[in-house]
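Lab manual, section 2.4: Encoding a predicted structure.

Procedure: take the sequence of the chain (205 residues), apply the prediction step described in section 2.3, and record the output as structure tokens. A sample record is shown.
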Amino acid sequence: MKLRSVFSLAIFFLCLQSGFAMEQKAEPAKAKVKLDKVEMDWGFSYFRLNGYRDSLEPRVAFIKRKSRYSEVIEYSWRPMEIYAMPHKERIDRIRCLFNRYYFSGPRKLIFYGFGVGGNIVLFNDRLKDWAKTRGISLRDGVLGTGRLFVGYKLRDFTFLKKTYPVVVRVDGHFSQDYKFGGELGRAGTRLDLSEIRLGLNFSIE
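Recorded output:
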């Protein structure tokens, strides 16, 4: 898949956001919830995986809250630089997800839900050239992915007059491995796209 096609796919997902019901950004606890208003939330997480250099994973989400549930369209980009490569050869994983959130409990402190979408896997030109010298033909591609999550809001945290939720959550993403067709140094022969994370976050999205 050419990079231009990937950008077109991302723009297509962005255009769909106005038709989806989505979750609102974090607001002070006493603020009135504004329904049916699209908001944008962004952030980043720390990425670590054997065979790749540590990096940050930025994300952006488009959110709207409904009376019974919330929905979020979320995009994240993970630049994955492979260890022991001569010219910082890299794999880019772009994840696009449509999520539905439900809230439970007397104060709606528990949230859970699911998501569906796709993983776009891109190999930079230097990595493709390196692979050709070893008889490996790398092709960009897309694999479907699913998501399940559950979490609990612990408290609100205020910073610079803005209030954020502090939540503990378990987040699972499930997808097929992306096979390379050969061994790419310390990255091995495939990219594992499934993961389960447990941790603290400053956003429910």
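Check your result against the sample. Residues 1-31 have pLDDT under 50 and may be disordered.
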